[in-house]
Amino acid sequence: MRWLAQVCEYWPLKRLAAITDADVEAVLKSYPGTGAAAGGPASWRGAGDKLPGHGQTGRVILAGSGPGHPDLLTRATYKAIQTADIILADKLVPAGVLDLIPRRTPVSIARKFPGNADRAQEELLEQALDGVRAGKTVLRLKQGDPFIYGRGGEEVAFFREKGLGDCVVVLPGITSSLSAPLFAGIPPTQRDVADQVLVCTGTGKKGKAPQPPEYVESRTVVFLMALHRIEGLVAELTAYTDEEEQRAREGRSQTEEAEAAQTPSHQQPGKRRTLWPLNTPCAVIERASCPDQRVIRTTLRFVAEAIEQEGSRPPGLLVVGRACEALYTPEKGRSWAVEDGFKGLDLDVESGVGIGGVGIAGMA
Amino acid sequence: MRWLAQVCEYWPLKRLAAITDADVEAVLKSYPGTGAAAGGPASWRGAGDKLPGHGQTGRVILAGSGPGHPDLLTRATYKAIQTADIILADKLVPAGVLDLIPRRTPVSIARKFPGNADRAQEELLEQALDGVRAGKTVLRLKQGDPFIYGRGGEEVAFFREKGLGDCVVVLPGITSSLSAPLFAGIPPTQRDVADQVLVCTGTGKKGKAPQPPEYVESRTVVFLMALHRIEGLVAELTAYTDEEEQRAREGRSQTEEAEAAQTPSHQQPGKRRTLWPLNTPCAVIERASCPDQRVIRTTLRFVAEAIEQEGSRPPGLLVVGRACEALYTPEKGRSWAVEDGFKGLDLDVESGVGIGGVGIAGMA
């Protein structure tokens, strides 16, 4: 019954509760070799479908749904949700966003589970292709922004290969890589503190560690897909890898090595990759903009220990750099601080609740 | 009459046409020393004002308006525009966004002109403070995202110093640094092409050149505030500065120098800053998401010449990295290509016009 657990995990309760026998039938039929009609998957053929005109081409709207809160959708994506003929959503599109889809609109949610991501992606793209060729407006709804680790570029390329490049519209979304810091009260660029922000991944291709970014004092770095290997990542940021050590030994004289040993390695500009000081402020931000948002504020020295002790609540990301303390002053003697809950998006003037600040404790 | 030219440049025609004698009176009165009532500027006291209750505290919503197109507002910011008691907008907030403001809502637009930015910022903050203390909901509307070069962090700090930190809500916006590449069909991260994106400024503090970011093959770099000094920027990216040359000479033996001369400098990992190859693809994107959007696609070798010949249409930014050619294949023998016009946000199904693709010519 692993599939049942996965369905329960990925689909919101409201959607599960609304499933009918016909839906189940359609989903089962959509799997290859189980009796699906020739011409493609049938799961999205719902009651609201219009009969397309002959020779009419539809279009694909590739849109980002933002980090979680439905009010963080752009107006353009919201309009697309309201008007699309079919919606093909990625697994991680937040429930609050899915709730905005009109009941008449057929929705497919990617069947992405570990080891199946590529196949699930192909399946959605084939469904989208069928829809466009049938003259429909297909909304490919992705989390965050479609071009920031969203495989959006691959989808554009796919439709071009099919001669349908002109039918694709791409809409940006609020990316969690920049909005999660914002909701944690961290301005990634702040005068006199940070003048640049690097968004990168903590996990490389095939799980291999990517080349760690060098330390730049005025840089804020946002690491996505990094929390499950936080200890390794911190080690790479704050010390040379074995490979680097070897390269350095080969390229430098003994005298230089001896000299280097006298000064902290991150103070040798231009020699090797500049290392991140262990006292660099950082923050782990999980489920940004959702009611169960959590922020752990600490430094590179303690972040792995903090995550080990506090546990992990994916999805989350790591922000590193002095900007983490631009609006936050850590309490002396504490290795880390945990802030639970999301404050600061409820604009409902009538309710008067949940207004709060940007959710920052411990300020100066 | 320089002030008149500036007003005409910064304010949309619709707003200018709607100005009444009373508005002019109020604006003039709001300047210090010209008869403003004690208790602060009067320019935002419009017809829609409610009388605040005694002791009631309002709030400040610090929100980003996105890159230009009004449909790129988030739903949260749109709601804030519809419900705020007062709106204090930055100069560059797009006209299409200002048009969404209800007529009853008093609006101030920052009087930022060269040499006056800090004073204009202070003025807006003081107006906001008066509004909050009077129990009003004040919307500080900024272009793009308030925490990406938007001075948003400084504004949060300002209200905290006044003991009003809890009254501040920060809303993210679509930043042009990531959406301009998207609208030019450039996915800043694309599998097998780029796994990281760096947003930085091409102009440092007090006009000084910032330290140029080193070359990383899998990195996309977005340079803001760079086009007016494009030649200098390209020189810094593709060759060592005099200072670096000197530092290198002091730190290396003549033998090493001689060896280094044999291999291209960007192929020497770990020695000095890695330089950007001149054939690195890049794109200049101006007025992203606006009807007069323009994209110039070229390489670092030709970008300065291209801008010189084609002219500059601010605001614009420079994107550098292999991602610029992820969905675009340059025409052989051409040094650069210019694409005019914005395609790809009109979701009005009825009109059926302006749908287009992501605006990419010359694709493979």
Please provide a written account of the structure.
2 copies of one chain form a homodimer. Chain A is an alpha/beta fold and 364 residues long. Among the domains of chain A are: 58-174, Tetrapyrrole methylase, N-terminal domain (Cobalt-precorrin-4 Transmethylase, domain 1, 3-Layer(aba) Sandwich), CATH 3.40.1010; 177-239 and 273-340, Tetrapyrrole methylase, C-terminal domain (Methyltransferase, Cobalt-precorrin-4 Transmethylase, Domain 2, 2-Layer Sandwich), CATH 3.30.950. The first copy, chain A, has helices at 2-10, 13-17, 21-30, 75-83, 95-98, 117-133, 152-161, 176-183, 230-238, 242-251, 254-262, 303-310, and strands spanning 59-64, 86-89, 107-109, 137-142, 168-171, 196-201, 219-224, 281-286, 294-299, 316-320, 337-340. The longest helix of chain A is centred in the middle third of the chain and has 17 residues, at 117-133. The radius of gyration of chain A is 24 Å and the shape is globular. Chains A and B meet through helix 4, helix 7, strand 5, helix 8 and strand 6 of A and helix 4, helix 7, strand 5, helix 8 and strand 6 of B. Strand 6 (196-201) of chain A pairs antiparallel with strand 6 (196-201) of chain B, so a sheet runs across the interface.
